[in-house]
């Protein structure tokens, strides 16, 4: 339950850390914002303004008396969907083109600028026309509305004329037949024949009357197709969002794309990037973040950098695990820089400043170099580890130095020496006795080891030192590498006390000096020097170390 509560409390912190990591990608966020503003400006300035005008037409059916059709449903008289298709058709567009003074080749272009809609539950057709000028938009909408009404009226009038002509074609033979029947009745003398003829005459008269009435009704039809209820006027404002809104919308979309890119960059970025990520990967606190000081010496003078080292040292001094044994191992994950030696040296100086007897052990036996870079105290004489070395190894016995740390006092240094068998030397009894000097009251031993993931040397010392400080640059160190470091240290029986972070520019001068000194170091290295121990030897070194102790 406590773990669940702790996880819930860490969620806001994790979200805050992710937001900060996203905002660190200022180039992506700023680039997306700039691209969006430029795109919005291009659309606002580069696109031509368009204007839209609308006219509305009330559609009606042809009828003799429009006021007497109250009982007839309008929906049954007019199919408004069909009327909308007719209004957008080629026939109406051809008439509108004639009204606008356009040719037959422009009919398709006119139709592309027209939109005919029908408001729900009405018999109204809305003609919306888009053009480059206000007047052209209004003229186009009115032309289409007038063309539709004209087309419908002519269509209705033509239908009526055809029906009248059809009725007349039926009426003429009946009229001739009636005249012939009248002449025949005048000649008949018999009452029976005369009655039959009169009945046929009445039947013909009824048909003639019906056809005549039909013709009269058709001629009396009101063929008006509808009325223009709204006449299009030239619009005052152009269509679209407007220049300021387009630029603002482009900026918002660009910012969103930039944030998305930064978020994707953060998700797929293997590096730790932030102190929170480093702390979660190592499951240990960040003890300090060194300021950017590319040309600082190995021993930091008084200033911001020195105060940061003192802060780290005091945090370690109050760490219960460290105070129990006073042994500290300083390492880097991948050897991405030379900051670990500076951290080890300055922590030793800080411990000496607090009145403790500090011993710095340079356990980097592959690339030693602290002895030539630290000032030796005049008349100093090391009193640590004066026992004899093994017959086949000159380390750790040999020349030990007393380092002058200025106002912080002095601390003793066991400089590293190239040896033919690094693994055997680090797991020797002499090395164990050297580190066990921390058991003396008021003493501290700081051990500097090679990078954990590059060599197995640090893991061979973990069970003798226990407390480990990891030095890394979060921008160049992968989260997986930090997790691997923690797993290896835990598996070797140690504990990560914390991490010291440094920016990318820290110790660039040291890297330059290291590159310049590399040829000389290679020339001085003995032909029998042991090669770098691969990481696979960790288990063997651990077993050997345990057996030695």
Automatic annotation (TrEMBL):
Signal peptide: none annotated. The chain crosses the membrane at residues 27-45. Residues 540-549 have a biased composition (Polar residues). Keywords: Membrane, Transmembrane, Transmembrane helix. Residues 501-549 are annotated as: Disordered. Residues 517-532 have a biased composition (Low complexity). This is Lipopolysaccharide biosynthesis protein. It comes from Streptomyces anandii. The lineage of its organism: Bacteria, Bacillati, Actinomycetota, Actinomycetes, Kitasatosporales.
């Amino acid at each position: 339950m406590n773990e669940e509560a702790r996880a819930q409390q860490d969620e806001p912190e994790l979200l805050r850390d992710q937001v900060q990591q996203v905002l660190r990608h200022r180039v992506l966020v700023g680039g997306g914002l700039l691209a969006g503003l430029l795109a919005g400006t291009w659309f606002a300035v580069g696109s031509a303004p368009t204007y839209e005008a609308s006219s509305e037409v009330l559609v009606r059916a042809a009828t003799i008396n429009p006021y007497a059709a109250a009982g007839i449903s309008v929906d049954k008289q007019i199919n408004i969907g069909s009327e909308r298709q007719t209004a957008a058709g080629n026939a109406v567009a051809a008439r509108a083109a004639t009204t606008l003074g356009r040719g037959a080749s422009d009919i398709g272009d006119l139709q592309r600028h027209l939109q005919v809609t029908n408001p729900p539950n009405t018999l109204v057709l809305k003609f919306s026309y888009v053009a480059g000028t206000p007047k052209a938009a209004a003229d186009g909408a009115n032309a289409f509305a007038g063309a539709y009404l004209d087309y419908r009226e002519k269509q209705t009038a033509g239908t009526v004329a055809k029906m009248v002509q059809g009725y007349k074609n039926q009426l003429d033979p009946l009229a001739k037949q009636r005249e012939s029947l009248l002449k025949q009745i005048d000649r008949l003398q018999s009452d029976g024949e005369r009655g039959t003829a009169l009945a046929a005459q009445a039947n013909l008269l009824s048909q003639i009357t019906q056809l005549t009435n039909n013709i009269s009704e058709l001629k009396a039809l009101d063929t008006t197709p509808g009325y223009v209820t709204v006449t299009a006027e030239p619009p005052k404002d152009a269509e679209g969002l407007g220049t300021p809104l387009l630029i603002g919308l482009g900026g918002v979309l660009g910012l969103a794309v930039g944030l998305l890119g930064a978020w994707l960059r953060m998700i797929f970025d293997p590096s730790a990037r932030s102190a929170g990520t480093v702390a979660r990967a190592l499951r240990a606190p960040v003890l300090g973040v060194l300021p950017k000081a590319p040309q600082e010496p190995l021993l930091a003078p008084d200033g911001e950098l020195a105060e940061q080292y003192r802060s780290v040292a005091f945090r370690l001094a109050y760490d219960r695990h460290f105070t129990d044994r006073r042994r500290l191992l300083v390492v880097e994950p991948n050897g991405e820089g030379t900051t670990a030696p500076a951290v080890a040296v300055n922590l030793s100086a800080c411990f000496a400043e607090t009145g403790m007897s500090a011993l710095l052990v340079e356990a980097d036996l592959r690339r030693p170099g602290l002895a030539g870079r630290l000032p030796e105290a005049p008349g100093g004489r090391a009193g640590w580890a004066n026992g004899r070395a093994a017959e086949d190894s000159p380390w750790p016995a040999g020349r030990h130095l007393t380092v002058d740390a200025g106002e912080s006092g002095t601390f003793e240094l066991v400089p590293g020496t190239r040896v033919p068998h690094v693994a055997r030397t680090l797991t020797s009894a002499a090395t164990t006795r050297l580190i066990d000097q921390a058991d003396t009251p008021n003493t501290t031993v700081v051990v500097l080891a090679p990078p954990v993931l590059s060599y197995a040397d640090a893991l061979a010392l973990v069970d003798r030192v226990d407390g480990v400080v990891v030095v890394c640059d979060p921008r160049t160190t992968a989260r997986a590498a930090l997790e691997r470091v923690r797993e290896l240290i835990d598996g070797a029986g140690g504990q990560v006390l914390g991490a010291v972070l440094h920016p990318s520019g820290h110790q660039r001068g040291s890297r330059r000096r290291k590159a310049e000194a590399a040829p000389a170091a290679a020339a001085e290295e003995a032909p029998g020097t042991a090669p770098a121990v691969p990481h696979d030897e960790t288990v063997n070194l651990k077993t050997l170390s345990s057996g030695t102790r």
